[in-house]
Amino acid sequence: MMxxxxxxxxxxxxxxxxxxxxxxxxxxxxxxxxTGTVTSVSDASITVDTGETTKKEPPRKFVITxxxxxxxxxxxxxxxxxxxxxxxxxxxxxxxxxxxxxLLVPANLEDPPVPSLCGPVPPDALRVYLGDSIGWxxxxxxxxxxxxxxxxxxxxxxxxxxxVEAHLMEQDGRPAAVIIDNRLYLNPDGYFHVSxxxxxxxxxxxxxxxxxxxxxxxxxHSVTVIGKFELPYLMPLMVHPSGIVDSGNNLIREMCxxxxxxxxxxxxxxxxxxxxxxx
Length: 279
Fold this sequence. Notes:
Blueprint: E1 2-5, E2 31-41, E3 45-49, E4 60-63, E5 69-70, E6 79-85, E7 91-96, E8 126-130, E9 133-137, E10 141-147, E11 150-158, E12 161-169, E13 175-180, E14 183-186, E15 192-195, E16 201-206, E17 211-219, E18 222-231, E19 234-240, E20 243-245, E21 251-252, E22 256-258, E23 262-266, E24 272-276
Parallel strand pairs: 5-7, 8-18, 9-22, 10-23
Antiparallel strand pairs: 1-2, 2-3, 2-6, 3-4, 6-7, 8-9, 10-11, 11-12, 12-13, 13-14, 15-16, 16-17, 17-18, 18-19, 19-20, 20-21, 23-24
């Protein structure tokens, strides 16, 4: 799960609607969004647990007002995304993930080969092919890739499809683009644009038309991911269909990571590793 907050430097927030896509430049330092499990809800409030217990982040409680926008009835123990002003606790918009428009739905394509060293994959698991490596999880929410404990790619499963969050960085560590619930939310320099060529795919291109992120829901139990992931002051991580090249120019092939809280992670030095409990 995820909590995104752009550093807030002013006492007064501009007149911003924090649920706009993409977020206007004037609102980038004023708005925040959090995604997690609804632990309690009433007519007046909602509490959301991001599940990031390793970071000791407590559940967040937000006020629901008559002006709060909702896409569906809020249900306890379901995933929700809350948009709010950084310097307050009033929910501007609450989206139930299961009721979102634009869910990625599965195609009917064959799975890529499973690396020979992998064990059996549970039939209820979602497989994620990162290059020619594979991770899988039977949980409804999974972190596919992280950098120094911060998620880069997360996937949540809903009854009718999946939603994706992606956090891309500049070479100096600043946010370059953030995709939330399959929509481009943060795009500071207007440098990227999202493409949905079909109901199964999510692509992100830079201003020059270069593909930097490509996620495809190829069948009901499998997702493929390729892309270029910039890292602060390091060479980018390159994910190709035939393998992964890390910041040290090492080629990684056919890794397996099953039912881990984080499938794969990038260390501070730029190396690519199995996941586990990310710190």
